[in-house]
Amino acid sequence: MINGIKTLKFGVEDREKCQEFATDFGLKQVHSDIDDTTKFNMDNSSVIYVYNKDDVRLPPAFEEGSTLREVTWAVNRQEDFDKLKESLKDVDGYRVDENTLYCLDPNGLTLSFEVDILKTNLEQVSVGINQYGSINRVNQASPVYEKASPLGIGHVVLFSPNLKAAQTFYEEKLGFYLSDAYNDRGAFLRCSAEGWHHNLFLLKLPNKKEPGLNHVAFIVRDIHEVIGGGLNMNRKKWDSFIGPGRHPVSSAYFWYVHSPFGGAFEYYTNDDYLTPEWQPRHYDYSLDLFAEWAVEGGIDSATRRQINKM
Ligand SMILES: [Fe+2]
Question: How far is the CA of 131 from the centre of ligand 1 (A)?
Answer without folding.
Answer: 26
